[in-house]
Specification:
Residues 9-178 form the Alcohol dehydrogenase iron-type/glycerol dehydrogenase GldA domain. This protein is 48% helix and 10% strand. By secondary structure, it is an alpha/beta fold. The strands form two sheets. Strands 1-8-5-4-2-3 form a six-stranded parallel sheet, with helices on both faces. Strand 6 (150-155) and strand 7 form a beta hairpin. The radius of gyration is 20 Å and the shape is globular. The chain starts with 10 loop residues before the first strand and ends with a helix.
């Protein structure tokens, strides 16, 4: 097991009706003028936004609002939020929504405290030194951004999707009421389940040995999500299943399932370019590329992939042919994705990739030939292109 730091400063307030505590929590963490940042119409139609505004009013905290966060959140809206915060003297940002609103709120927080272009952080040419604090009222179990240090933004100029990680961006609190997810469409719910699984698997697929506790935590989380996802297919308003998925989303991306090892993250990087170019739903995009990535790299660590097949996918270990165990495990996960109506190819996302698009995706994913990706195998630009072809 490698040495590590585990830092999770976010205060979690979990349960029914917890959104009514938003104002008191903002005040607890020093907020005196708040930007409430959210997506499109669902938080308004459901009445959630009004309940949040009422909570802030009752706490005596003035607020301004900025809606419009979209999946694969846009840099232009981040710029708008930065200007609004500076104009209004905002000193706290409350994100109401899922990962898009949270990631956008984090970027706004960085930008308010920075004299330059906030995109500098996402292009890794600057490091954030300060940020406006962020709180969260979560409405979607998926990205884990409510407890993580990461934020992903899409720059419409070139449709580049880039991530930035800083502990300054970790939310001060996360309000998590599973009932707020009852009305989510099936596709969004299942995409979220895949995203949660992939945050765990990106850490699980690692060359580090002797990480039994961390492995067991990850394996248990994965099996829980798979079990509860099947329940939600039949009954989207099962509170207990929604609760399990909600909590799994936070634990999958707050660092717990990666303690003691270095993760891979190649699938996320590959999907980011698909999301940037075609605006596909993140979890669905991950499901579409994972099998191709796994088949491309598994020979670099057959024991790790076999362990996943046996402990997570319940594939019997083939002592005479461990490689067969691995391939059956990959197929078993793809079968699970299909069972929850998730894609296993890019075509099933509604995208017909051309060779020119494949080459462009690989070029962007390699940051214009400036980096490799992955841990199980270091992937070059040509490797990335081949995985896109396999996933086509």
């Amino acid at each position: 097991m490698n040495g590590f730091q585990y830092y999770t400063p976010t205060k979690v307030v979990f349960g029914k009706d917890t959104e009514h505590q938003a104002g008191a929590l903002v005040r607890e963490f020093g907020g005196t003028k708040v930007l409430v940042h959210y997506g499109k119409g669902s938080v308004k139609r459901s009445g959630l936004l009004d309940r949040v505004f009422q909570s802030l009013d009752e706490a005596g905290i003035p607020w301004v609002e900025l809606g419009g966060a979209v999946p694969n959140p846009h840099l232009s809206l981040v710029h708008e939020g930065i200007e609004l915060c500076k104009k209004e003297g905002v000193n706290f940002i409350l994100a109401v929504g899922g990962g898009s609103a949270i990631d956008s709120a984090k970027a706004i927080g960085y930008g308010v405290k920075y004299d330059g272009e906030v995109w500098d952080f996402y292009e890794k040419i600057a490091v954030a030194k300060d940020s406006v604090p962020v709180g969260v009222v979560l409405t979607l179990a998926a990205t884990g951004s409510e407890m993580s240090n990461s934020s992903v933004i899409t720059n419409e100029e070139g449709w580049l999707k880039r991530g930035y990680s800083s502990d300054l961006g970790r939310p001060k609190f996360a309000i998590m009421n599973p009932e707020l997810t009852y009305t989510l469409p099936e596709y969004q719910t299942m995409s979220g389940c895949v995203d949660i699984m992939m945050h765990t698997m990106e850490r699980y697929f690692s060359h580090e040995m002797n990480t039994e506790l961390t492995d067991s935590l990850a394996e248990g989380l994965l099996k829980t999500v798979m079990h509860q996802a099947k329940i939600l297919l039949k009954n989207p308003q099962d509170y207990d299943a929604r609760s399990e998925i909600f909590w799994a989303g936070s634990l999958s991306h707050n660092g717990l399932t990666g303690c003691g090892r270095v993760g891979d993250w190649a699938c996320h990087q590959l999907e980011h370019e698909l999301g940037g170019m075609f605006n596909v739903t993140h979890g669905a995009g991950l499901a579409a590329v994972w099998g191709s990535w796994a088949r491309y790299v598994y020979m670099n660590d057959i024991p790790r992939f076999a362990k996943f097949a046996v402990n997570v996918m319940d594939v019997p270990y083939n002592y005479a042919d461990p490689e067969k165990t691995v391939l059956e495990g990959i197929e078993a996960l793809e079968d699970f994705f299909r069972s929850i109506h998730m894609p296993t190819s890019v075509r099933e996302l509604g995208v017909e990739l051309t060779e020119a698009q494949i080459l462009e995706l690989a070029y962007k994913c390699s940051h214009m030939d400036k980096r490799t990706i992955g841990g199980i195998q270091k992937l070059t630009r040509s490797d990335m292109a081949e995985i896109y072809r396999m996933a086509k």
